[in-house]
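Collaborator request log, item 7. Partner lab (contact: R.S.) asked for a structural prediction of Foldase protein PrsA to inform their binding assays.
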Amino acid sequence: MLFGIFFVPLTMARKTIKKKTLKPRFSFPKRYLLFVLVILAIGGVVYFGFRLFFAASVNGRLISRFSVIKSLEKQGGKTTLDTIILKTLINQEAKKRKVDVTEKELDAELVKIESNVTSQGTTLEALLLQQGMTKKDLANEIKLQLLVTKMVSDKVSVTEKEIDEYLASQNEQSSSDLDQSTPEITRDQAKEAIKQQKTQEEIQNLVADLKAKAKINYFIKY
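Returned to partner:
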């Protein structure tokens, strides 16, 4: 009985609340909302499209991005195109050989470069700004260098005889140099120097081979 006594008033209260619920007097029509969204979309296209085709304005006269690109192509179009072609060839060859660079390897090289730059009294950010590069640009360059280094690593080796000859030539140069403050080179340093030199030579050979075998069609002559 107690359950029935409390249950009935509660049910009636709920019904009363439902009856008193008011519907909103104003609802924004969906077609108007769609119209506003379309207008905003068109405005965005016009704004970004304007920036896509024009680089600046001088006293009301517009300067097109095409004119800027055309001027840049005259200055260094061939060099830029050759660089892009070379990067494409290297990436294609790396993919063919299933050679890749891990994030860990990339980060390690970035740390080395940043440490070296800091030791020279500047920052990596300042150097990149001076070169007109971003950190992403630098990372891409490092990745490319690591890819070609990996692809020629099996062709690079340093013998003990080569180390001896390198040290002998360095000692001879130091003895004839008036400045005697140059520190003596260790065998490990000599080995690394020879390795880097041989690596660069093999990279040049690889690049020349890739260019010789590639089918490159030029549609624009600079």
